[in-house]
Amino acid sequence: MDIIAKIKDEITAVIGNACATLEEKKVFKFEPGYLVPIEIEIPKEKKNGDFSSNIAMKITKMVQKNPRETATLLLENFDLEGTYIERCEIAGPGFINFYLKPDWKYDALKLIDKMGSNYGKTDVGEGKKVVVEFVSANPTGPMHMGNARGGVIGDVLANILKYAGFDVTKEFYINDAGAQIEKFGKSLEARYIQAIKGEDAIEFSPDWYQGDDIKEHAQNFIKINGDKYIDAPTEERQKALVDYALPINIANLKTGLEAYKINYDVWFAESTLHKNGEVKETIDALKQSGLTYEKDGALWLEATKFGSEKDEVLIRNNGIPTYFAVDIAYHRNKFAIRKFDRAINVWGADHHGHVARMKGAMNAIGLDGEKLEIVIMQLVRLMRNGEVARMSKRTGKMITLSDLIEEIGVDAARFFFNLRHSESHLDFDLDLAVAQNSENPVFYVQYAHARIASIINGLKEEGVVIDKDTDITLLKENEEIDLMEKLAKLPDEISICALSSDPSRITRYVLDLASLFHTFYNAPLCRVKCDDKNLMKARLFLITQVKTVIKNVLDILGIEAPEKM
Length: 565
Description:
Helix 6 (about 145-165) packs across helix 19 and helix 20 runs antiparallel to helix 21 (about 535-555). The protein has a five-stranded parallel sheet, sandwiched between helices. A four-stranded antiparallel sheet has the order 1-2-4-3. Strands 8-9-10 form a three-stranded antiparallel sheet. A hairpin with a 3-residue loop joins strand 3 (about 85-90) and strand 4 (about 95-100). The protein is built from 21 helices and 15 strands. The chain is about 50% helix and about 15% strand. The protein is an alpha/beta fold. The longest helix is centred in the middle third of the chain and has 26 residues, at about 235-260.
């Protein structure tokens, strides 16, 4: 159950019934089959009520009355019996503000107590199948900062979607075919030859992979196979090296992501699309769409017809499908083969131009491109001592995901990377991430949870516990009311996050909740341990629910909720 959703439903019903009554009285005249969305918002300022609607301004032309007159007529015909609504007022040009009875806040607390770890869950997803594909780093080297941010965004978004009632699959797309693997094979081959015959034996192209991991793979391959492949044909030699090194890299990706608290439901290999003929099937479907043509021996897609800046090659003049063609086949697999209702991809900002052509390609093969949703992620700058941190202390190269976790820990990394909207550039302060004070947001939230646990345990030792006679209507201070209102909003926040694909909202929500708790804790009139035993129990009940909600959100974020700090 979602108290906020229930109240919105009540307000919607009150407005709808009033409209129907006025139409019956022939005061309002609506067009047949009219349907005006009733927008309900939470005002920024409390003086404007608990909820507000602009419905009077929305229907003013239809009913041929000015907004304030429309709002007045609506109010005169509101039936508030059996609702949380206490009174209504007209404001400004015709806004209707709704003021609620205090019961809803206390009911929200009771609901949290009843639902516990399930509080916040909604059914807005209606069990629809969603696949969230994120990270999908090339298995040719270690993960970088883009993978680190994308990993948290995708993982937390998937967790939120599950909380919102979707049937969610977390997926990693393994690029184990195509140009990157060809380059990987050439890089390994060159290092293998150099290791046996010397560096002058073969020139190492600047376009190949330069990392020390390539050298390590070659050396380890030699320990197993010696010079067995030194005189083998290039194709055979490269295949043997890739067959050896690629599974190791994929295993390292899995291990690194598990250390980052990311566990996938599916590891989908690109190679399967080639083996089972789905790439060919997809290209045939594109040909049938009438949007392809041949030029210079290659097959092209008229991508400009659906928003792309230029047409795209599907099959090169050497007969090999492009990455774009394979990507279309992969997304066709999601919708046409595995029947997902919604597919969400977390992509870097450099893929922004790929969005329109991929949606258009889905439409071209008879699928709904709008079901494909792209979460664009901007770049991250790591900062240390006020300057950009570029080098890893351990390797002397760019900081990898494993370097970051080793330096600041998983909790800080996951919290910081999801603190801003994905489309916002992020300056990640490494010094702040390890600070043990209230300036560090993850410490601030975790400390709130630990502080509550300490209070609860301390009172329990003194024999103070919540019982069925606890009177929570004693909670009337502003700080208590603010906490109750914030707690009540979690399910609504979950639904908004899920439908907008913005997981950063939930991080900011728990940060705001922690701030409200610390304000409550430091308020002289809100001491939990006080002389009034009934009030003490009421406040104990309140902070117990705060602890539950913080824990639930930290679980969604994949972050520990410590009992002690």
